[in-house]
Amino acid sequence: MWRPEIEQFQGPRYLAIAEALAVDVRGGALNPGDRLPTHRDLAYRLGVTVGTVSRAYAEAERRGLIGGEVGRGTFVRPDARRRKTQAVIDIEAPLGVPQIIDLSVNIPTPMTSAAILAETLTEIVGRPGIARLMDYHPHAGMTAHRAAGAQWLTECGFPIEPDRVIVTAGGQHAMTAALGAITEPGDVVITECLTYPGLRRLADFLRVRLHGVAMDESGIDPEAFETACRNLNPKVFYCVTNLQNPTALVVPVERRRAIAAICQRYGVKIVEDDVYGFLLGQDIPPALSSFAPELGHYFTSLSKSMAPGLRVGYLALPMGSRDDFTQVVRSTTWMATPLTAEIGADWIRNGIGRELADGHRDEAVARQKLARQILAGHDLSNEMRAYHLWMRLPEPWSAEAFALELRMRGVAVTPAGAFATTRNAPSAIRLCLCEPPERAVLERGLNIIASTVRSAPGVSVGADMGVV
């Protein structure tokens, strides 16, 4: 069983393992077809974490040295020795040191200038009682912050009173508060068959069972959804109805009505994630939760609309249900950070938040146009105002093979399997268009994707795509 000598290599341990593997392949200590130790076994032998080995194997896959087979293990690729030497890409490199064109992270393009932030902080510092922002505050958030949250939710198409709003530490925390208050271990949570990966991790943490339901071009299929509600007695339906992650579809109003009616018929509570809805502007449809207000738990986050680092979210609750949810906030973060909540509230009240959101929408549209020019002729999602693009791949490409080939060429994307809640994931990838700060970098990545999709699986272009 292979045990790498990693002491001779500098840098992070996962890169040292990948470098040792490359040396052993070139030197003959590992041969094509050799089976590698499991992640757990190698971690135990080397005295490192399983995560370190997982990152090492991922880097070796990027270089084309190894490949995995479901149910069998990880093996040295037959053509490993013929592969060109790949440049080291440190996925843990410091911020601001780009090593790869990353189209796998769904965040907005930076728009908050130092001048805007400095002016806001200066104004906040000059207020009487500013030191109170460093104190403990109610778990649901300060009164002024909940009022600002209600204003933002209303502007985004979900009218709500401040006493029904909880301030959270971002959208993921809002989802944690909602599901943590509603569910108990063993409960069933229904979602689309393709859904936000953060839900899957949260379901593992809360020990609830996810059940994915089939989708069509309008969202979750009503007939399949009702069958699941009738047979599984689910506690919650989690959904993204606006610019769904990953497919970017917008659920039509009539489909929202139909799904809400089924939820009412079976008493299934709704957790509606609307972090992208602001991108639709004045065209945003009524929330699914508005058709079943006694069941609806609706949230959004300023991380997508203003700035990721704010980590401020707003969770809107049914009338009279706030106490259960504030207890989850108390048990997880105690409260959202008052200083960032104050910044968010300021930007909502003075209009900076709306300007930032509008700017993000304009940038998303411009990048969508660029992507559709470069990827013309391919099967792409329709919505132009999304941060991301859903691309269905032609045969014979599989999503995993395509994502691996792109990684070897210096572009990171997310294959459909990362979003799948059923066994049969489509042959598709999600492209996040707004993470690269410069459009020129995005254009380079899109051109690599266009070139790759025209080639055959397993054919790497190596140095001609800038990978040496």
UniProtKB/TrEMBL annotation:
Matching InterPro entries: Aminotransferase_I/II_large, HTH_trans_reg/aminotransferase, PyrdxlP-dep_Trfase, PyrdxlP-dep_Trfase_major, PyrdxlP-dep_Trfase_small, Tscrpt_reg_HTH_GntR, WH-like_DNA-bd_sf, WH_DNA-bd_sf
Keyword set includes Transcription regulation: yes
UniProt xrefs under SUPFAM superfamilies: PLP-dependent transferases, Winged helix' DNA-binding domain
Entry's Gene Ontology molecular function annotations: transaminase activity
Record-stated family: In the C-terminal section; belongs to the class-I pyridoxal-phosphate-dependent aminotransferase family.
PROSITE patterns: HTH_GNTR
UniProt key word NAD: no
Top-rank taxon, per record: Bacteria
Species annotation: Dongia sedimenti
Assigned keywords, A-Z: Aminotransferase, DNA-binding, Pyridoxal phosphate, Transcription, Transcription regulation, Transferase
UniProt xrefs under Pfam families: Aminotran_1_2, GntR
Protein's name in the database: PLP-dependent aminotransferase family protein
Coiled coil: none
SMART domains: HTH_GNTR (SM00345)
HTH gntR-type domain ranges (all copies): 11-79
